[in-house]
Write a structure and sequence with these properties.
Blueprint lengths: L11 H4 L7 H5 L2 H29 L8 H4 L2 H22 L3 H20 L1 H4 L3 H24 L3
Helix pairs in contact: 3-5, 3-8, 5-6, 6-8
Length: 152
């Protein structure tokens, strides 16, 4: 613009260019699209895990004698922790926000750590640990490949 707020002829084509809502989508690379789909899938999984843990906390389908109140304090603590963190991660992952991935990574590592180092809480299932590690590695590969597409 010139001193008086008018558009010079050189700036006119730029100023009058239409805005395209899907320009950002077209700039996404293939790995970034895969990463976003992966994050959305993990959001659904995290939501289901969070709802599962909340169902244990509030005793859905258990009748008058809730299993939650009869379990050990470490089991109760871990169940409440995962009920909260999984649902928070689900929201962040669905939005593809950086904080969502951080919360999800915390939940994944926490579940693996509970299974390995505290088997008395959830039974120490190595299948859960392997699945969590596969998901973690999948995320890292997708995130690194996506970052290579956008070197800024």
């Amino acid at each position: 613009m010139s001193e008086h707020g008018t558009i010079t002829p050189e700036q006119q084509p730029e100023a009058l260019a239409p805005v395209h809502a899907d320009d950002e989508k077209n700039q996404l690379g293939q790995w970034t699209r895969w990463l976003i789909w992966f994050l959305r899938a993990m959001a659904v999984v995290s939501m289901l895990k969070g709802l599962y843990h909340w169902s244990a906390v509030i005793g859905i389908g258990e009748g008058p004698d809730s299993r939650f109140s009869t379990e050990t304090i470490p089991w109760q603590t871990a169940t409440v922790y995962f009920a909260i963190i999984d649902l928070v991660a689900a929201v962040g992952l669905w939005l593809a926000a950086v904080w969502g991935a951080v919360v999800w990574l915390t939940a994944v590592v926490s579940m693996a750590a509970v299974q390995v180092f505290f088997p008395q809480i959830y039974g120490g299932s190595w299948i859960v640990v392997v699945i969590e590690l596969i998901l973690l590695c999948s995320y890292l590969v997708l995130a690194l490949q996506s970052a290579r597409e956008h070197p800024h």
